Amino acid sequence: MRNSLTNLRNIGISAHIDSGKTTLSERILYYAGRIHRVQEVRGEGATMDHMDLEKERGITITSAATTVQWKAARINLIDTPGHVDFTVEVERSLRVLDGAVLVLCAVGGVQAQSITIDRQMHRYHIPRVAFINKMDRTGANPDAVVRQLRDKLGCDAMLMQRPIGSEARFAGVVDLVTRKALYFDGPLGEQVRIEDVPPSMEEEVRRSRQELLEALAMYSDELMELLLAEEEVPEAMIHAVVRSAVQGEQFTPVFLGTAYRNKGVQALLDAVVQYLPSPLDCESQALVHGQTEAKIRLEPSPDKPTVAMAFKIVEDPYGALTFMRIYQGRLAKGETYFNQRTGRKERFSRIVRMHADEREDIDEALAGDIVAVLGVDCASGDTYAAEYPYCTLQSMFVPEPVIQIAIAPADRGGAERLAKALHRFRREDPTLRVSTDEETGETLLAGMGELHLEVYVERIRREHRVLVAVGPPKVNYREAPTQEARFDVRHKKQSGGAGQFAHIVGRLLPLDPSQEEAFLFEDCVTGGRIPRQYIPAVEKGFRQGIVKGPVAGYPVVGLHVVLEDGSYHEVDSSDLAFQICAATTMRETFSKTRPVLLEPVMNIEIECPSDFQGAVVGDLTGRRGMVTATSASGPTARIEGEVPLSETFGYSTDLRSMTQGQGTFSLEFARYRRLPPSIEREVIAIRKKGSMVGAV
């Protein structure tokens, strides 16, 4: 068992959109013998992009899992989307993985989504190796990309290879550890030819290897002593130091190649096995059930009580497919396990290994593995264990949606199918929110961006055969206080028998901008003026009140509630009475804080021919945007900045028009900021009308 875990790797491949990560995944499958014919992203569609929409658009929408064998190691591989609209797929994949490959374009370098992925990797303590792809492109500059890794991501990154040739003449790599040249021969680069370093590169390789060793000396006293003594450093020591530094999240080794031209992939696979951790190298903890701080250590042993996390749910014609990572114990076909959130006992009637949309039935899966279970009724992030109550694994971070549309069936007969579709997609995707507008009765669909919602509308049509009417995109604004307001509110109701009584005194004030929380409740009541058992009800009432603010009905953020005093009645006071009192306080007092509307602001990154840079910058400024940086790589200009989300609707069409179809861009949520007063008045007026228009 220990040997099998030592040779197991659970890894993800993540990148900014169009960095070539799915092409890389396709080559990994081919070289590992999992497929016998390479399919391209554009055209037939890659193996891992199994949805029709993925094949048509040439993008990854959902994370796909597969298992491959590389030499003595078994690798569970997850290919994740690069588009920021589907970032939750990256989030939940990284939550259950042990290591990752960060793919970067040799020309584009560290881009907007690369920064987001880096933040996600740090959130879940995921060690990684980096792969600079597209080394055959004009303008490829691996040294510049490594500098960006250091400057933009703050990581200690070093090249483990030097390129043989550049751009279109890229022919292979020199391994700086072994000092051997690697060439990739055959129609699909399947034959790795090892030769001595080309004489013209000997000095470059000697210098680069010395720089690598000096960087690694920071992580090993023994290696540093050898360097100071000017003695030869053994290859085995170099590998050991790199592995230790990578798994300590201190060092990022960087590899080179071009997946599309079939060069460098096998060396990357060797690095994955050599440097990234096995389940035995990772420490996992879970909260004791019902506790907020008490933790237990999980061991990747099949003999311990079972603990597994459901991290992804997919509905298909055959029922719900739930992806699970096993942290402890084993999952066995036909056995029962307890959902730690609901307490419900469920029988796992069928367990499968996944290869994109293909399945391989298995009888048992052991600790450290990633599998899928059919027919389980749960939600993303649920913990399963052999006992109840036992423990709960920390769930994944789920970002808040920033855009919404109104959606309705085009005919009455489609209402039931639409409801079924929305229920299914909510289970699959925690960033997709469904609500009902109380005033208009419209069904609202909220998500991470235009593409995110567009994909789900199309899936409703295709997979559930529902023609829908769709309203124009609407921004998810927020309401926030700007000044302090005191409250002193009594709730008293008497209608025969026991009545209701609650009295609370305190302050509403803006949160410090440095606070990450959207809402903070502070209990400062002393002397038992309000019994302790009623305080949670007060907080609950305020939390209910922030769901819909008084300015325009948007959620309230940045609110600090300080409860200072109050009173109660020995008979008539209850949890319900204090909850109602707090909700009433929000309605009556929040308007006194002079609330304002906040709008989501996006980080934008634009690439276009340098000839059009002036026009693009001018247009961005006209959209209330701000340029933060510009750079050029050959004939291509890169523009970075911020722009309000409301100003980006339809931007892809406008950008193509400005750049003769050559401009591309990406968006990522940055923060909320105050809406200008003139626009705020317009938003409030439109909000009050609240009618759905348009149909597609």
Sequence-ordered SSE layout with sheet pairings:
Blueprint: H1 2-6, E1 8-15, H2 21-31, H3 52-57, E2 64-70, E3 73-79, H4 87-96, E4 99-105, H5 112-123, E5 128-133, H6 142-153, E6 156-159, E7 161-164, E8 172-175, E9 180-185, E10 191-196, H7 202-216, H8 221-228, H9 235-247, E11 251-256, H10 265-275, E12 284-288, E13 295-298, E14 307-316, E15 319-328, E16 330-332, E17 336-339, E18 345-347, E19 351-355, E20 358-362, E21 364-366, E22 370-374, E23 383-385, E24 391-392, E25 403-409, H11 415-428, E26 433-436, E27 443-447, H12 450-464, E28 468-470, E29 474-475, E30 478-480, E31 485-493, E32 500-510, E33 519-523, H13 535-545, E34 559-567, H14 575-589, E35 596-609, H15 613-622, E36 626-633, E37 636-644, H16 651-658, E38 664-674, H17 677-689
Task: Write a short abstract of this structure.
With 696 residues, the chain is an alpha+beta fold. The chain has 17 helices and 38 strands.
Written description of the protein model:
By secondary structure, the chain is α+β, with helices and mostly antiparallel strands. The protein has five domains: 2-281, P-loop containing nucleotide triphosphate hydrolases (Rossmann fold, 3-Layer(aba) Sandwich), CATH 3.40.50.300; 284-392, Elongation Factor Tu (Ef-tu), domain 3 (Beta Barrel), CATH 2.40.30; 404-474, Alpha-Beta Plaits (2-Layer Sandwich), CATH 3.30.70.870; 482-594, 2-Layer Sandwich (Ribosomal Protein S5, domain 2), CATH 3.30.230.10; 599-674, Alpha-Beta Plaits, CATH 3.30.70.240. Helices cover 27% and strands 33% of the residues. The protein is built from 17 helices and 38 strands. α13 links the parallel β33 (519-523) and β34. α11 packs across α12 (450-464) and α13 (535-545) packs parallel to α14 (575-589). The chain is globular, with a radius of gyration of 28 Å. The protein starts with a helix and ends in a 7-residue tail after the last helix. The model is unreliable at 42-51, 57-62 and 691-696 (pLDDT under 50).
